[in-house]
């Protein structure tokens, strides 16, 4: 099964993906805009802080762009939101790992501090969790499209059983009087 398999249009998982993408996108957008309002230098590494995180103009720009991408994913919804969440979540985690090694080096052009690294890990895990919700657990309900895709034979048997019970309808009473039979 691919993680890009389609959800039914009205599946409740799509709501989780949209909320996750939208919420995290708004947080990043606000952080980026606050960085721009402080008129920080684009590559400034002097330790300017916004909302408790070190930032500069480049990090503000990246935050705004990624926030808008997450919000666009939330607007589109469905598997697009899920895939955007998973992709951005992985990128945040990778950013955290990269920046932990370059904290006090010249390569730290985004002016990351330890609080930024922790934020990157937390935000990455949060976004990734929203994107993977309902896709990768072992206890998925049988109406979940991802469970159905992983277990097509059992899903077909359950569908057949459900159709058979519906097609047969309720038992009918035939005959009259004392010797009635149910069919």
Please describe what this structure looks like:
This protein is mostly helical and 183 residues long. It is 61% helix and 4% strand. The chain has six helices and four strands; from the N terminus they run H-E-E-H-H-H-H-H-E-E. The strands form two sheets. It has a two-stranded antiparallel ribbon with strand order 1-2. A two-stranded antiparallel ribbon has the order 3-4. Strand 1 and strand 2 (53-54) form a beta hairpin. Helix 2 runs antiparallel to helix 3. The longest helix is centred in the N-terminal third of the chain and has 25 residues, at 13-37. It is elongated. The two termini are 42 Å apart. The mean pLDDT is 77.
Counted beta strands: 4
Q: Cα distance, first to last residue?
A: 42 Å
Overall shape: it is elongated
Q: Largest beta sheet: what is the strand line-up? A: 1-2
Tell me the strand percentage band: under 5%
Secondary-structure element pattern, one letter each:
HEEHHHHHEE
Oligomer category: single chain
Radius of gyration: 25 Å
Question: Overall mean pLDDT score?
Answer: 77
Low-pLDDT segments = none
User: Percent range for helical residues?
Assistant: 55-70%
